[in-house]
Design goal:
Elements: H1 2-21, H2 25-45, H3 49-94
Length: 95
């Protein structure tokens, strides 16, 4: 059992480092989701199933979903703002 605990702690360290070192936001969110699953496994192995279940719901599902929705909204707002600026620039050139 102690070997399994040490192994899962190594996985937590590896996945946490991978999330921090990733530069692309989409890849970070996907890595964060896997990190949440690894943390949930760690909680189950360390005999904290209630915390593990909470971690699955929050860390592996809800948080990455909120990040993805936020990134989509920011991208959409940025595209709308740039389109509005192009339209205003064309209007000034025509006048």
């Amino acid at each position: 059992m102690q070997l399994l605990q040490m192994l899962i702690l190594c996985f937590v360290a590896i996945f946490g480092t991978a999330v921090v070192l990733t530069r692309d936001p989409r890849s970070q969110v996907i890595g964060l989701s896997f990190f949440g699953l690894v943390l949930a496994c760690m909680f189950f192995i360390f005999q904290a199933p209630d915390v593990g279940l909470s971690q699955v719901v929050i860390g592996a599902v809800a948080l990455p979903l909120m990040f993805m929705l936020t990134m989509a909204r920011v991208r959409r707002n940025t595209e709308e703002h740039e389109a509005r600026k192009r339209h205003e620039k064309k209007g000034k050139e025509a006048a």
